[in-house]
Every structure is written in structure tokens, then in C-alpha cells.
Amino acid sequence: MDKSNENSISLNKYISQTGICSRREADAMIEHGRVTINGEPTKKGNRVFEGDVVLIDGKPLLEKPETIYIAFNKPLGVVCTTDLKEPDNIIDFIDHPERLFPVGRLDKFSQGLIFLTNDGDIVNKILRAGNNHEKEYVVSTRQPITDSFVKQMAAGVPVLDTITKKCQVTKMSEHTFKITLTQGINRQIRRMCEYLDYSVTHLMRTRIMSVNLGTLKSGHWRELTEEEIQNINKAIANSSKTEEASRDIQ
Hints:
Blueprint: E1 8-10, H1 11-16, H2 23-31, E2 35-37, E3 40-41, E4 47-49, E5 54-56, E6 59-60, E7 69-74, H3 90-94, E8 101-103, E9 111-117, H4 120-127, E10 135-141, H5 147-155, E11 158-159, E12 162-163, E13 168-173, E14 176-181, H6 188-195, E15 200-208, E16 211-212, E17 221-223, H7 226-235
Parallel strand pairs: 9-15
Antiparallel strand pairs: 1-4, 2-3, 2-5, 5-6, 7-9, 7-17, 8-9, 10-14, 10-15, 11-12, 13-14, 15-16
């Protein structure tokens, strides 16, 4: 058998692909001595080859469930966390029969489109800050939108010791604008507005990459179409594995 790394998979990825946990949780299981390969103890960084038998607590891993990708229109008040101790967590709200993970985040007081899936790989690839995936938002402010505001937002403003990337900003009405970001800085839009002395009164994400919110009602979800999944996979095909995942919180 060819024992090169090209013909193997990392142990934490092998475990997470079954849908029972994330890679980080798999690493914790490995560190606590709960995982064996062919009856031998394991450590972080071990590889799994074809024919290897991986056990957790002496029991075989369950078969990987069908991969699920859903688009959810997050209402105000729902928190994008898998921590079930949070009473308003997104997992309990959706109440899906499979274990799902949100892809990125929207803060409690923002609403709109967010993906959830049991595919850990796609979560990591979409979130990597260097991949420049577009996210579109419609934002309302207490102050009137001026040409100067639009120009400054589009050019980039100081946020958390950096300057935001140039972006597309379009005035939609006196108090509403549309903005397309390729960054995932924590509360980026709100911070950008605050720097220019604007207060956000409403923030909705309407598009992620090629997937639009469309007519999906608040609090409802739908499965992504095959075409949408193919387009996402095509867009993330060259995702760098060395990039840090961004915290996409608006």
C-alpha cells in the first residue's frame, strides 16, 4: 500500500467528515486518548489510510450522513452560535434533524442570509479571509446618505488598526445604501459607519457569493440548489489552506 500523504487524510478531518463533531472537537478527542487507529493510540497530526480502522472510545465511527447545505434568513434576536446554552442559538431555532454549523456569523441585531451545513470543509474554505468572497448587504442609517458618505465608504475607512478594502457602495434611498464586502472584519459595516458618524438602524445581508436571499421569508430556510452548490465549490476550489478563517460578524 502506498503510504504517502497524498493517499491519506488527516485524522481530525476523517473524524469531522462523519458529521459527529468539528475538527477542533476531534483534536480534543485525540488529545484525551479516546481515538485509536488499528488499535494503536493516536496523536494530533496522524494520517488515516485506506483500510485503517478508526475507533472512538472503542467504537467504530458512524457512516457519514448525507451532506446538507441550507440558506437561512436569520431574524433579529437569533444568535449565530452552536452553544446550546445560549437560549437564542441558531441551532435550536432552526431545529434541523442533522447537526449543522453556521458558515460565518451575523450579529444578534443583524438579519438576513446565512448558510448552515454539516460539511466542515466548505465552512473552512468559505470563511478564509483571503478568498475574497462577496457578501452583499442593505443598510439603513439614521442620518441621510450623502455622496461624500458613499465615496468614503467605498474608498475604505480605518477600522481596528487597518483600512477596509475598497468596496462597492450604492445609495438606494435617502437613508439606505447597498454595500458589497470581501472582508470579514468583526462588525465591519457598523464600525465603518461609526467612523463617519453614522448610526445603523437596520442591516440585512442579501447575498453570499452567488446565492441571493430572494423571497425567503425571515425565520425560514431552504436547501441550496445543485447549481448553487456547484457554483460555491467552483469559487472555493483554490482556497488556500494556510489562510486564517475570518469571523464574519456584521
